[in-house]
Design a protein that fits this description.
binds phenylalanine; 359 residues; BirA Bifunctional Protein, domain 2; single chain; 10 strands; 7-stranded mixed β-sheet
């Protein structure tokens, strides 16, 4: 066989072998490798071209044309295979990522505020709309704010009635003093009045103070930690009538209906006169039922006219100014509004209960 015929034969077999391997390639990267193997600088075609040099000069263009034709054919075949592989890969991907758009969506569950927090927020908002400024105080208090300044001196029996949790003494500078978990929100009266005066103001002063309080107590209607909202106002000529008006407006707004209220004489060291406040039973409209124990009335809070000693303890002129104050149990009111029978439900964190109460 002449040199040129042998080269032609080489080209032909190279082409058919190449086309076959292109067709078998399973991936784009494999094709890429084949392109390098055949058409690359050190590829099979270049190898053949090296033989061209041995031909007599007049034959070189002939074989040159053959080489070019083969090159074009292989390049075209590679392009074609690449295109069809790309189409196939796309189809496979579409198949793999197929989603059924007719399936119902997965809904996400949204959380809700705890019913007590909701109640606290609602109550605070009502008072704040009436013009009371929101204040807060620490849950770990000293005896001065929780007792002394509220007209409960050390030997006073009311201290024993408060079932106080004492905490380890806190060192404050050189001195350390007994500290306790506040048993009510009334110490915020003292703190808020002091701050108000320190800032150089004069009464009138109207404050709502929501917060957590602690007493060593645990049964259907008591928990060692519960919440109170303290409300008070100091001004000239404040009377029980103001107290009653604010209470009536608050309770009717909170319960979203007209509620009747009743003030019963009571005793608190920090108010004089003092009264416990009952509301007409919201379950039986005052007819008498299991919840109100047949009386038609439910006790919801303690109240009274701020004792002159309390005003004096912060340096307010008790001759010129007077004030009313009350403290209500948040859990109690939420239970009444939502018909919850046991206070402990609030703190057991049973999701079914919380979900039903959340909104
Ligand atoms: N601090 C009282 C209590 O916790 C409630 C109260 C507040 C009574 C303000 C009168 C005035 O029982």
């Amino acid at each position: 066989m002449s040199e040129i015929d042998s080269l032609k034969a080489q080209l032909e077999s190279l082409q058919s072998e190449a086309l076959e391997s292109f067709a078998l390639a399973a991936s784009l990267s494999e094709l890429q490798q084949l392109r390098v193997n055949y058409l690359g600088k050190k590829g099979a075609l270049t190898e053949v071209l090296k033989g061209v040099g041995k031909l007599p000069p007049q034959e070189r263009p002939v074989i040159g044309q053959h080489v070019n034709a083969t090159k074009t054919a292989l390049a075209a075949a590679l392009d074609g295979c690449e295109a069809s592989l790309a189409v196939k890969a796309k189809a496979e991907r579409i198949e793999a990522e197929r989603i059924d758009v007719t399936l119902p969506g997965r809904s996400s569950t949204s959380g809700a505020l705890h019913p007590v927090q909701q109640g606290l927020d609602e109550m605070t908002a009502i008072f704040s709309q009436m013009g009371f400024a929101v204040a807060e105080g620490p849950e770990i208090e000293n005896e001065f704010h929780n007792f002394d300044a509220l007209n409960i001196p050390p030997e006073h029996p009311a201290r024993a009635m408060h079932d106080t949790f004492f905490v380890k003494e806190f060192a404050e500078g050189e001195q350390s003093e007994p500290m306790l978990l506040r048993t009510h929100t009334s110490p915020v009266q003292i703190r808020a009045m002091k701050r108000f005066l320190e800032e150089g103001h004069e009464p009138p002063l109207a404050v709502v103070a929501p917060g957590r309080v602690y007493r060593c107590d645990y049964d259907v209607t008591h928990s060692p930690m519960f919440h109170q909202v303290e409300v008070f106002k100091v001004d000239r000529d404040v009377s029980m009538a103001h107290l009653k008006g604010v209470l009536k407006h608050f309770l009717s707004t909170y319960f979203e209906k007209e509620v009747s209220i009743r003030l019963r004489p009571h005793y608190f060291p920090f108010t004089e006169p003092s009264a416990e406040v009952d509301i007409g039973c919201v379950f039986c409209a005052g007819k008498g039922c299991r919840i109100c124990k047949g009386s038609g009335w439910i006790e919801v809070l303690g109240s009274g006219m701020i004792h002159p000693n309390v005003l004096r303890s912060v340096g307010i002129d008790a001759e010129a100014f007077s004030g009313f104050a009350f403290g209500l149990g948040v859990e109690r009111l939420v239970m009444l509004k939502k018909g919850i029978p046991d206070l402990r439900l609030f703190f057991e964190n049973d999701v079914r209960f919380l979900r039903r109460m959340g909104s």
